[in-house]
Amino acid sequence: MIRLQLQIELSYTVLAPGADFFFFIHAAHTPQQTVSDERLVISQSDASWTLQESPAMDQRCLRLSANPGPLKVNYAASVEITHHVADPAQIDEVPVCELPLDVLPYIYPSRYCQSDRLYNFAGGLFGHLPKGYARAQAICDWVQQHVTFRSNSSTGTTSAVDTLVERVGVCRDFAHLMIALCRAVNLPARFATGTDYGADPSMGPPDFHAYVEVYLGHRWYLFDPSGTAIPMGIMRLATGRDAADVAFATIFGSVYSDQPRIHVVAGEDPAKGWQMPVHTASALSTA
Amino acid sequence: MIRLQLQIELSYTVLAPGADFFFFIHAAHTPQQTVSDERLVISQSDASWTLQESPAMDQRCLRLSANPGPLKVNYAASVEITHHVADPAQIDEVPVCELPLDVLPYIYPSRYCQSDRLYNFAGGLFGHLPKGYARAQAICDWVQQHVTFRSNSSTGTTSAVDTLVERVGVCRDFAHLMIALCRAVNLPARFATGTDYGADPSMGPPDFHAYVEVYLGHRWYLFDPSGTAIPMGIMRLATGRDAADVAFATIFGSVYSDQPRIHVVAGEDPAKGWQMPVHTASALSTA
Amino acid sequence: MIRLQLQIELSYTVLAPGADFFFFIHAAHTPQQTVSDERLVISQSDASWTLQESPAMDQRCLRLSANPGPLKVNYAASVEITHHVADPAQIDEVPVCELPLDVLPYIYPSRYCQSDRLYNFAGGLFGHLPKGYARAQAICDWVQQHVTFRSNSSTGTTSAVDTLVERVGVCRDFAHLMIALCRAVNLPARFATGTDYGADPSMGPPDFHAYVEVYLGHRWYLFDPSGTAIPMGIMRLATGRDAADVAFATIFGSVYSDQPRIHVVAGEDPAKGWQMPVHTASALSTA
Amino acid sequence: MIRLQLQIELSYTVLAPGADFFFFIHAAHTPQQTVSDERLVISQSDASWTLQESPAMDQRCLRLSANPGPLKVNYAASVEITHHVADPAQIDEVPVCELPLDVLPYIYPSRYCQSDRLYNFAGGLFGHLPKGYARAQAICDWVQQHVTFRSNSSTGTTSAVDTLVERVGVCRDFAHLMIALCRAVNLPARFATGTDYGADPSMGPPDFHAYVEVYLGHRWYLFDPSGTAIPMGIMRLATGRDAADVAFATIFGSVYSDQPRIHVVAGEDPAKGWQMPVHTASALSTA
């Protein structure tokens, strides 16, 4: 079991009345991930907010209407993750005709994952590989090997096609390209957000993280195509078709944003069954 | 009440084993639209198929695995539509902070509706209009006035941005552009498919149709930006974020497709309350 | 020496007054290519036209203003090509700092060859290869191996980036992608048009052809990335930065176009030094 | 007559051997623009360089190969501009069939000016305007009114189509969009670089500037679609099909660049015939 202590500190300046925020900063409630000791502190005492849970998606959306002036949103929680662990060699693909109805959206193209343009490309590289977890892993590896990580090399409109052409990006771009390639060979894949446990401190302070879940063997398995985190230590916030759906903050209004500050510590305590996240060859699922 | 008699005839040649089809050809079950006398005839007696209903979306997906050789799929039904009719002047927008959680996906960009790139453009043209149904209508009118309908002028990868630049398209392109512009001013909008009742026969035989629903006054209202159909006579098949989600047929495998044949007749019978579809200045909803 | 007998028949219907045409259908005059027995027949006796020679570019532009009604433009010529033939192993690249001023435009991106977006991609695949003819050949081979030829798979707006993503195209698309990749590693490359001598008749009737010239060893060498022609039999019409510059016909006005009809025969006569075009491992230049 | 005193200071750090630079920082020699008192100082005494003049283009390219370490390139000159001044109402368009051969490239699309995608759009807005200078001015005004100037809002790959969609940019983007729209209605237009005399100091220090020349009445007339400079005070450096051709510095190699420093002063001296640049309704040409 992984035990993470999480703190997220967001800081804004609202410049005009009528600013609305949608946040995905609450740790997801999933069968594999339990959350306790949550604290949410919002600096504006008169801001109105609600926390809405999407049961279908295992995620929580914090919606907040703020007033002009400074705004701080601090969230802290303890999260316990008991991964579903499986042997990659035993995980098959689910034939398209057997995919559940609620999984179908994840084989279709989306804003940043134009899989419809990649059929020839993905088919040529991955179409003839044996079906199963190993094929998704091959796509993940290909993306990691062919794209260079560079901070600030992409923007909010950068898509999988751009990344395929320009071969540079941040974790979000790696995730979009992997998703698009998976969908182009009919593997359902979705965008997941969390925190980048294990990321190299030389690449910057701890941050939100984007990774991928692929639907295999009737489960969503976790992949980290940017290779920047230790997957076992990724805590899940939200999932969607791509970054359009689950930005950690979607802001409507005139707002100045500071860099988010994130702090994650893994607890180690054999007596409690807590172990440190490590790299593993096993397949992991938190869904 | 509108009463439509619908026939859809699809004809394929399956060229290799292992062809899967997802169809959205069943008339939707909605509070405003009831379906009776349905007949589905599939020419391959040994093809396996299921019909799955998505309650959240009011639509039915026919999933079929076919064998090599000819395949015909014929669907017929009687559909009664009792529109929710409202006065446009009385229909307000729903503030972003009050949008239901299941409506949120429809303010985000999607594959063919890159609203994230259109904030300045849409804000400049429509941002300062009074909020409400009239603003959605203004967007619909703008699209109709600034894009030229031309058969075969677009492809399966054509998006709203392409249509904004090139100013030509088919009904699907008009719908994508209207949706993208709506979302760019935070109006939730979705892609809907049906049949093109009332289309000018000189433009071709009856066909599937793409139109738009905008979430206003806590309801989804119908708009026809291509202006090619009589909205009151549009029978609803399915809705989604854009054409990626609700193609009438999504095909996996090696298949040759003929043109679909569609036949829709409106019944007129005052005794039964059936009236002919006509153009109207009222706001209509079938959801 | 190669000796080609060429006939080009173009057929149009001019639908309204004021139609202007620019044609590149005259065989180029180059030190390696001589033209004799030219005949140009224009069916409209009252159409005004001029033939302008661009000495810098070794090509001739036929400019014609036509009247409403049918228009036929027939061109025939005898062309003798004495290739500059070289050993690929002896051909070096010209360092950027030594490129002549009139060659510089061909290392910059152009409409259909967005080399500026391909630096990482091209650098990763071809940046570390030994410099020289072999590097251009490696790019040519890569394009031929990774793109599939399919008639009518692209349009007039399809660019090198599209072809890199979608991996399908016609000769023009192969040429654009090869040019963009060459420029991305600072190899000057230009678009050339001719006729597709040697093309497989099963792929369609004889046609205009698009190929590539790369500036190496202070000369422009010929490459055929689509691999559909016998390069030794390609007669040169015109060169430019990409297809935008040297379409065989650029039309201003309301005109209906038929398919061009092209007929090329190679003469074989040892007494006259005429040999048949064959595939060769030597480097060829007609410039 | 306008008399400008110009200083350009460029500062680089060459990080590895083998850095080549192409600069367009020399004031152009044109019939309307004469240059005197030039000084070029290159800090690396052992750097090799040449200054090449392109007579066809009225511009000079400084090509320099530098060594690792700091590099400063300082250029100063006195420039006298005697504009060709004309009455806009007297300036006609040149019919396509009468355009000189060397002007033709400027009606074709280029890397950043995809006029081929804008025929419907430009035709709809500007196709039916009376032909002449006023039509080019209408395009210039439209761009200025529909695009917002914002520093750092675009990148090196931003094109006219992007600017048309996103409606924001810097002077280079305004120029590309105006050029693309002109070409889409068959008005030859080219990209010109100079210095931004008269720019509002609140928008930043003096800088290089991008503007447009349109071929009308057998001359290239100057337009400033971003509206940030006083056109009469723009000194010409170079022209090309778009920014791909005439960046003030094109760099091959591993180089760190500082911001350029530019200083331009207009001299006023009635005795010498020097007047200050002012806004004018007359048409101006420096070519």
From TrEMBL, chains A, B, C, D:
Transglutaminase-like domain spans which residues? 163-227
Q: Which UniProt keywords apply?
A: Plasmid
Gene3D superfamilies according to UniProt: 2.60.40.2250, 3.10.620.30
Instruction: Name a Pfam family for this protein.
Output: Transglut_core
Tell me which domain of life the UniProt entry assigns to the organism this sequence originates from: Bacteria
Query: What InterPro entries does its record include?
Result: Bact_transglu_N_2, Papain-like_cys_pep_sf, Transglutaminase-like
**Name of protein:** Transglutaminase family protein
